[in-house]
Amino acid sequence: MLETLLRIVASKGTECSAELARRLGVSHALTENMLDELVQQGYLKVVVGECSVPCERCPMHAACLFGRRARIWALSRKGERLLAKRGDGVF
Q1: Using a CB cutoff of 8 Å and minimum separation of 24, what contacts does 6-15 make?
Q2: CATH numbers and ranges of domains, the chain
Q3: Beta bridge partners of 45
Q4: Selection from 3, 4, 16 nearest residue 73 by Cα
Q5: pTM reported for the whole predicted model
Q6: For residue 9, which of 24, 20, 21, 1 has the smallest C-alpha distance?
Q7: Which among 8, 43, 81, 84 could bridge 38 via Cys, Cβ 3.0 to 4.6 Å?
Q8: Contact between residue 43 and residue 8 where contact means Cβ atoms under 8 Å apart
Q9: CA distances to 4, 21, 48, 67 from 52, in Å
Q10: Distance between CA atoms of residues 87 and 83, nearest Å
Q11: What is the pLDDT of residue 29?
C-alpha cells in the first residue's frame, strides 16, 4: 500500500491527504502515518513543513486553506529511482 501511495503522490501533483485516504480506502490517520513512513524511509521528502508563525499573526491567515497542518511532499531521488525501476512510467 505504501508503494501505491507513492505512485499516487508522484502522479497527482497536488492532492490533500484526505483525498489520498479516500482513494486508498483507508482512514485519514493511516494515510498520514503512511506519508510519515515514506518520509522516514527516504522515498518522500517534506518540502514545506508546518507553519512556524501562529495563525493569528500570519498575514495569509484569512486566505489559508490549510491552517496549521500544511505539509507538502515531493518524491526524493530514492522514490524516483524506485518508481523508475518498477517501470511506473511516471518519469
Answers
A1: 6/38, 6/43, 6/44, 6/75, 6/79, 6/82, 6/83, 7/83, 7/88, 7/90, 9/35, 9/38, 9/44, 9/73, 9/75, 10/75, 10/79, 10/83, 10/88, 10/90, 11/90
A2: 2-85 (1.10.10.10)
A3: 74
A4: 16
A5: 0.69
A6: 20
A7: 43
A8: no
A9: 31, 26, 11, 11
A10: 6
A11: 92
How far, in Å, are 6, 18, 34, 41, 48 from residue 24 at the CA level?
11, 10, 11, 20, 23
What are the CB-based long-range contacts (under 8 Å, 24+) for 87-91? 88/7, 88/10, 90/7, 90/10, 90/11
59 is written with which cell numbers? 498575514
Which amino acid is it at 87?
A: G
For residue 60, which phi and psi values (nearest 5 degrees)?
-100, 10
Q: Which residue has the cell 531521488?
A: 77
